[in-house]
Amino acid sequence: MDALCWNHPSISLKGSEISENHGFFRPKSSSHLHFRAAMNSSNPESKPSPLKIQNRMFILGMGFVGQFFAQELKYSGWSVSGTCRNLGQKMELEGRGFDVYVFDANDPEQGTLKAMKYHTHLLISIPPDVDVGDPLLQHEKLLRTTLQGGDLRWLCYLSSTSVYGDYGGAWVNEDNPTNPSSQSGKLRIEAEERWLNLGNDLGLSTQVLRLGGIYGPGRSAIDTIITQRSLSERQHRRARRQYTSRVHVQDICQALKACIQRPSSRRVYNIVDDDPAPREEVFSYARDLVEKKWPRKLSTLSKQVEASVITNGSGRGDKRVCNVRMKRELGVSLVYPSYKSGLQSIIDQMGDEEPF
Ligand SMILES: NC(=O)c1ccc[n+]([C@@H]2O[C@H](COP(=O)([O-])OP(=O)(O)OC[C@H]3O[C@@H](n4cnc5c(N)ncnc54)[C@H](OP(=O)(O)O)[C@@H]3O)[C@@H](O)[C@H]2O)c1
């Protein structure tokens, strides 16, 4: 999808650059610098007036999805800020034009929370921790107090389809009860509920996206085969599932943009493609693509890795996650409805030079 396809028609108010289209205010200057300057001013509670008119995204946890989405928003003229956990990454991200805060959700820094308040949109991409649950929600009271009365109007929490648990290979949608067996799945449900409550209490459009297994450039079965890494035990467990739902990162971005365009209250969406498939099938497809592009280059190690995925397959029932609500309510038309087209695009983007 073209970065600008999701634009609503702009509403231009005389003498200003207010945009109601959620994406297309193109700043005449580097507005995040104004913003930082305003945040550093003697009165941190005073709102920086020129910035009130621009869409500003704050991404808690600029990991794989966070960075991909940040880049897409930036192309569309948004001002994007976010967090990471080390200085090296902060510098790298700042070099790409983002306003970045080093931030540990277990010990949240007040200045970062205040900065968050003066953004219009907040995406939470930090996963729960097995020991403490959602790390930021340990400080929920502080968060609520700080965010009140700011500019936020949209909040989205990135969750996981793991919340459904095992459905023995049946289809599940958002109305099916959640029943995770894993501790991380249980913590996800708790985090979903608490973020929905928080957003709702603050009067924001609040949505939860339950993502399937995320893949994209740099993180896919093709990358695993090429780098010839052994599969982790977690990957083996996933491989043994009868069905795994997955989604290309570009389609996650589409869904996020659609959520921004269609605000709602406490709505939950599955974000997956149309083609849940066993992981061994995905690996086998990826291997064929690699062998076709670079014949006879795969080592025995990578063949052993794949063989172990297949022989370990116990066919344990899981679930197939349904994406009808995402299509009907958000109007998302998947760029990659199947892992096949997704993997094909990843290998096509790799160029001809041997990556081994
Ligand atoms: N990977 C999947 O297949 C999958 C499937 C469904 C849902 N999800 C969830 O969807 C979300 C986005 O996925 P993703 O693949 O983009 O995740 P990711 O690359 O792991 O990004 C998560 C981000 O959160 C940061 N983070 C973690 N704990 C933190 C803490 N205590 N304080 C501050 N920052 C913290 C990480 O920092 P560091 O980089 O320093 O670790 C990273 O920037 C995550 O919540 C993920 O768990 C993932």
Automatic annotation (TrEMBL):
The lineage of its organism: Eukaryota, Viridiplantae, Streptophyta, Embryophyta, Tracheophyta. InterPro entries: Epimerase_deHydtase, NAD(P)-bd_dom_sf. Residues 155-271 form the NAD-dependent epimerase/dehydratase domain. This is NAD-dependent epimerase/dehydratase domain-containing protein. Belongs to the NAD(P)-dependent epimerase/dehydratase family. Keywords: Isomerase, NAD. It holds the Pfam family Epimerase.
